[in-house]
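**User:** Hello, beginner here. Are you able to go through the protein record under this note? It all follows right here:
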Amino acid sequence: VWIGTTKGLSAIGENTNALHSIGTSSNTLFGLTSENVWSFYAQKNALFIGTDLGISKYNSTTGQFTHYPFKGINKKAKDYTIMDIEPLDETHFFLTGFEGLFMFDSFRGTYTNLRSKNELLIDRHRKFYAAVRNKNELLIATAHGVLSYDTKTHSFREIHYLNNAVFRGFYVDHRGTIWTICDKLGLCTIDLTKKGGQIKPHEMNRFIQQFTSDHISTFIETEPGTFFLGTLGSGIIAVNISQGTCFRITKKEGLNNECIN
C-alpha cells in the first residue's frame, strides 16, 4: 500500500507490514524533486507520482526517476499541485490539479489544460481534488460538489453542487458501491441513479469522529469491508464497515508523517 505525505512516499508491505520510504534527493535521478506527494498511479514497473511541481515517474526496475515539470500552461493558476491521477489508456492520464483539470501525455511528457472545454462550469467549482472512472465517464471531486467528464465526447457536466462542501475523493468498493469523502459530511456513499446524485453520510462517521477531528483526505479499501482513511493530522484511521470497529495508525506504528495527503 503506497501512502503520500508531505515528507515523500511511504509503502507498507501487504504481507510483511514493513515500511519503505521515498523522498527527495540532491541527485534527482534517484529521488523526488518535491517531497509534497498528493497522488500516484502504478503501471507495470512504473509509478507515476503527482507533486506540487509536476509528475515524477519512478522505474521500479532501475530505481531511477524521470521528472516532468508542471508549469507555464495556466497563467491564472497559483497552485499546480496534482491531487489525483486517473489513467485513460497506457500513455494518457487525466489530472486533477488543485486549480485546474489537465490531460498528461506520458509519451510526449506534455500537459493540456482542459478549462476551455467548459470554462463557466470549471470556474464555478474552482478547486479539484480527485477523479475516479465510472464506465465511460470520470467523476471529479471539487470544492463545491461533483462533476462528470465524458471520456468519449471530452465534455463536462455537473452532477451535484453543495457550496463549500469540499469533496476530496471517491472509491468504488468490491461491490461496486461508490464512496466519497466530504469535509462537511464525512464518509458517504453516492447513488448516481438518483436525480442530481444522492449523497448519504455513513453511520460509521460517529466512530471515526472519536479518533480524529481532522478532515479525511484520502481512503482505500484494503480488503472487502475494510477502509484505510488518511487524515490531515491524525495519521490513518482503519475502519471495518461490517464489524463497526476502528483503530488508528500513527508514527508509533511507523508512519513518517501523520498528515496524509
